[in-house]
Amino acid sequence: MRVAIIGAGIAGLACAQRLRDAGLGATLFDKSRGVGGRLATRRATLGGSEIAFDHGATHFTARSEGFTRLVAAWEKAGLVARWPAAGADSWVGTPTMTAPLKALAEDLDVGLSRPVTALTRSGNSWTLHSEAKRLGKFDAAVIAIPAEQAAPILSLHDFEMARAAMSVRYNPCWTAMFAFEDRIDALPDFLRGSGPIVTAVRDSAKPGRAPGERWVVQAGWSWSEARLTCDSASVAPSLLAELGKVAGRSLPPPIHCAANRWLFSQPSGQELKLLWNPAIGLGACGDWLYHGFAEYAWLSGHVLGAAIAAGARK
Ligand SMILES: Cc1cc2nc3c(=O)[nH]c(=O)nc-3n(C[C@H](O)[C@H](O)[C@H](O)COP(=O)(O)OP(=O)(O)OC[C@H]3O[C@@H](n4cnc5c(N)ncnc54)[C@H](O)[C@@H]3O)c2cc1C
User: Fold this and answer.
1) Minimum CA distance residue for ligand 1 atom 1
2) Do residues 298 and 11 lie in contact, with contact meaning Cβ atoms separated by under 8 Å?
3) By alpha-carbon position, which residue is closest to atom 27 of ligand 1?
4) Whose alpha carbon is nearest atom 36 of ligand 1?
5) Closest ligand 1 atom, CA of 287?
6) Structural element, H or E, at residue 216
7) 106-156 pLDDT tens trace
8) Is 265:199 a contact under the CB 8 Å cutoff?
9) Which of 19, 166, 194, 290 could cysteine-pair with 24, CB 3.0–4.6 Å?
10) pLDDT tens across 229-272, in order?
11) Which atom of ligand 1 is nearest to the CA of 285?
């Protein structure tokens, strides 16, 4: 059985790994140049050196049995470390959030820079298309992308799945990234929920990071929503001013300043867990089926992979 997985975020990768463990072939396609999705790292050049920011998820938890086991293996391999600043059960990838996902992808068949634009069914097989190009024929297809992007693809083949996807709303999140010449002593390494700022993180304080003073500042949903059409050049200074308010003084001018608008940051969870139609071999996974956190996205992919594998054994 050959399974195509659209999306190589943590959910798609978890599904592929579960299928591979069951001896089934899975091929992932992602529109980006790298794997990991919203467990993301933004790179920039500063003074001739590369700097990096975890501008998506700042940290993740490991509470469920299967994910805890995987995270323990990642820890042994030096791919993650605990980061108590964000909470007692918080973990980060080392040296970046994408590091464990790149390791996960190493043994898998992944096609990058492959945006899937259509999925067609003929007889018992699925064909994936990227614009005019065909990406191959498969026995089953898994949609592992945010619900709002999954809905139009699902709607052509399974109305119930499409309806589930259409009922999910993602919240936007403006995220600013700053580097400063000197350490800002007035701020802790991690702070949550102060005015328009939902989370601010001294990114350079995470384990395994290069020295420096780098910050990731994430704005709340309503603040972000109200500024959806603004550009990053205006949003970054606003968030810098907000961070200054938290510090109790205006901050020095950053030596690097950028902002990213996440249109789909975290969804309102549904607790659906599994969307799989064995009659046509179509499934969906991702954080939108469970809760809007990395661990639950992994669980969603893992559970779907197990369901597909169980069906293939019959
Ligand atoms: C700003 C922000 C802060 C967050 N904070 C936290 C946190 O503190 N803790 C936590 O646990 N979680 C956090 N999250 C949520 C966490 O990042 C997500 O829950 C998790 O990464 C979702 O994984 P996923 O695989 O479901 O989706 P994604 O990571 O979105 O993966 C989907 C993949 O599909 C690809 N794709 C999309 N459309 C197509 C297409 N048509 N063709 C091919 N590829 C496609 C994308 O490029 C992407 O790689 C945060 C997210 C954001 C954005």
Assistant:
1) 56
2) yes
3) 9
4) 7
5) 26
6) strand 213-219
7) 999 999 999 999 999 999 999 999 988 999 999 999 999 999 999 999 999
8) no
9) 19
10) 999 999 999 999 999 999 998 899 999 999 999 999 999 767 77
11) 26
> In Å, what is the CA distance from 255 to each residue of 51, 70, 112, 221, 296?
12, 38, 32, 27, 36
Q: Which two tokens mark 225?
A: 């929503």
Closest C-alpha among 216, 219, 215 to residue 174: 219
CATH, domain range 170-267: 3.90.660.10
The CA distance from 125 to 138, in Å, is 6
| Whole-number Å distance between alpha carbons of 259 and 255 | 14
pLDDT tens per residue, range 78-89: 999 999 999 999
CA end-to-end span of the chain, whole Å? 12
Q: Which of 13, 31, 38, 268 to mutate to test the pocket of ligand 1 (most atoms within 8 A of CB)?
A: 38
Query: What is 44-107 written as a DSSP string?
Result: EEETTEEEEE--S---EE--SHHHHHHHHHHHHTTSEEE-GGG-TTEEEESSSTTHHHHHHHHT
In this predicted structure, what is the pLDDT of residue 166?
93
Supply the angle between the helices 159-166 and 147-155 in degrees, to the nearest 10: 160
Orientation of helix 294-313 relative to helix 10-21, angle to 10°? 30
**pTM (whole model) above 0.85:** yes
Distance, in Å, from the CA atom of 26 to the CA atom of 142, rounded to the nearest integer, reads 10
Q: Which of 198, 264, 207 is nearest to 38 (CA)?
A: 264
What token pair was written down for 126?
Answer: 């699925």
- Separation between Cα atoms, residue 306 and residue 313, nearest integer Å: 11
Q: Any idea of the CA torsion for 66, 70, 72, 74, to the nearest 10 degrees?
A: -170
What amino acid is encoded at 73 in this protein?
Answer: A
Tokens of 173: 């999140």
Q: What is the DSSP letter of 117?
A: -
Segments making up each domain of the chain, as ranges:
2-39+101-168+269-313, 170-267
